[in-house]
UniProtKB/TrEMBL annotation, chain B:
Domain Glucose-6-phosphate dehydrogenase assembly protein OpcA N-terminal, first and last residues per copy: 51-165
Compositional bias annotation for Low complexity: 329-354
InterPro entries according to UniProt: G6PDH_assembly_OpcA, OpcA_G6PD_C, OpcA_G6PD_N
Protein name: Glucose-6-phosphate dehydrogenase assembly protein OpcA
Amino acid sequence: MARTTAKASTEARDPATGFSPPPREADGRKKQAVNPLRDPNDRRLPRIAGPSGLVIFGVTGDLSRKKLMPAVYDLANRGLLPPGFSLVGYARREWANEDFAQEVHDAVKEHARTPFREEVWQQLAEGIRFVQGDFDDDEAFEKLRRTVDELDKQRGTGGNFAFYLSVPPKFFPRVVEQLKKHKLSQAPMGAWRRAVIEKPFGHDLKSAKELNRVVHDVFQPSDVFRIDHYLGKETVQNILALRFANEMFEPIWNRSYVDHVQITMAEDIGIGGRAGYYDGIGAARDVIQNHLMQLLALTAMEEPSDFSAEALVQEKLKVLNAIQLPNDIGADTVFGQYAHGWQGGEEVKGYEEEDGIPADSRTDTYAAIKLEIANRRWAGVPFYLRTGKRLGRRVTEIAVAFQAAPHLPFDKESTQELGQNALVIRVQPDEGVTVRFGSKVPGTAMEVRDVSMDFAYGESFTESSPEAYERLILDVLLGDANLFPRTAEVEQSWRILDPIEDYWAQHKPEPYTSGTWGPAAADEMLARDGRSWRRP
Amino acid sequence: MKIELTDTTSSKINAALVQARRAVGAPATGMILSMVIVTDEGSAYDAVKAAREASREHPMRILVVIRRPGKSPRARAVTRLDAEIQVGGDYGTGETILLRLNGELTAHADSVVLPLLLPDAPTVAWWPESAPEDVSQGTVGDLSQRRITDAAAAEDPVHELSVRARHYHPGDTDLAWTRVTPWRSMLAAALDQKPGVKVTSAEVEGEAYNPSVELLGMWLADRLDVPVKRIVSEGPGLTAARLNTPEGQIELDRSDGLLAHLRMPGSPDRQVALKRRETAELIAEELRRLDPDDVYRATLLHGVQRLTVTEKPASAKDAAEQVEEIIDGTEPATAPASSSSASSSSSSSSGSEAPKPRRTAKGGSAK
């Protein structure tokens, strides 16, 4: 499947076909015409980012240590970073450049996917800087500006910098204002300055709009990159290849054949040490608003005219705009909270017993909602979205369940064990695609039973397949916005979720035992429709 | 698990494969291509190891054709096929089948390989060394979409490039070409930063018996349409590439085989990690694309004899003198004769589409 994608994309780019779309800025094709060493047919040459640097705020955090710094190293190891690439850390800790370099070194050694190589590290280490300060500290931001200017001179970063805000959202306004005040957000002629922000993008429509206003006040909307790391995953990108590079799936990808769709993201862990962040936010805001809505959009959208960021966002928005809330929110949504129980052989606390959680917290750790999409393709096909913590196992998948065959020429007894045909896209772990269909059981009697046909994503075998953050950081440096949700998508997702959250705020969550697949009410919700949840 | 079959046939091997899969409990899935490695006992081990490592990125069925023609008349009279099937467990993803062809059978490898190829999936052939002159015409080459050779493993690597050029067919590729991808991408990225700059000449520098240096030089000559000088150095591998522009020289220089320095006019010097890669990584890169590599074709057919070969200049003055001796890559017929000594080689046999060699063979290249 990976090969098919590659082929399709090269054909689209092939000027020989005569039907290639007009050049776009994002393509970088204008540049290619100038550089005689570049040739669209030369598919070995990877996309290397131009001269640039990355500034990480909140560099002492978990995300930075476990994901961002290793991803930067892996990119360097694959030869995808420009020579002279520089990494600047900004945090309160009292570190010298060397201390920070040591910290990056340790993080890379522990978490990087590609093997540690001294010469790659040497290349990277030369460009590592640290600036110590608070977010209010004018002097520190002034020092940051000097550091950036120096890097331009010493390392040739060319004034191109991305600012990665790996900090709690309440600090966003202060950081971007400081960037503006100290002229860091202002790109010199011919250079760029970009902002990278992580979820949550607000906690409801109003706050999301406010956040967008604050950020867009300083950075152009096209220079703001919102990270939804799910979109960086190979399997998620593969949804588009599966649907639009093949002939055999798209004809049945509609209400005539599809019975319903289940999108699941389950975690086996509890909230861990994130009580302060999680309580009051809950599963729906944490996961459904961004990850599951994006997966739904990719599963249900129409074919984009091409794979540019604009065309993709257009189609995704169309689907998101067509989403209809259930008439009876009480009946078609369920929210729950995990209770004390046993998970995978370990005794675990209930949510209300976790440290830092008030005993009467109403925060949802499980959320299931039923949505419909009001368009010709999907009318009447329910999309069930569910997510939760402390569920049976860690899994993310999209399951498209097909209708039963209109007529079965077999005895009733022989097809008793035949379920619905299904196509399951396994996003993580064990990335791949499963097709479930009926097959005759070997023997003299005619008996049909479900079997699974499996495609394991080839790339997933290798430890060194690119991680989502690698791909996304590279895309930020290249200015490629394909895999980043846009403002309008974020706001539309909140518009869908807000009424549900309002309803839930008036009610109490259903408890469910840790290690199970959620509250009984969720099973009842599907049972009323004559369906049941897949056990992923 | 491992199954050994002595004096067997392809259909028995196929049956054993199905059995092995059952025993391991894995269905036949996920493999995206068949890789046929044509080799001898001597280099089979390294080749299989590299292919198996690459199969983690590209799950595949590896068929290793080991020819044992026999050294005595008695050995040659025995025609026999021995097979060793390795599936699951420590053997990585995919399946590996070692095929030992004895006696007369060595000339009929295709009859053994054909029934064992994956249905409806591409086939890649790889000769780790001693590839036939025309790889697309061989019994195995016939079956494959993509044919991988390695000029660096030949007795006379630079002459080998001319052979490859003479017999080029779409789908041919060479590991010596794969080895220069990081260099090419870094040089292209360097030029990205100087939009519109006119390169006037170029030079590539590396050890004598390294065809990658020639390929990089030919690529630059072909793309930039400028004269390119090939300088012989101690190595290891490729040591430098330089692009001369009116603004100054763009230099990518790697003396230790690990870390390179990029020097550009108007920019500070920068370090670039440019490690020489393992065979497994090269094979993995080759398998990412299975369509003909047109850029390789253009580079190869540019003609290796159109590069000027010189010793590494002892001083800047020498270098300045030698610049005058460059052959104009665009009009080789009118170029002045080079007086500098060619230490390694320049091929006598010209590629079919390449202009005639200006100089006769020197050194060890005459064959």
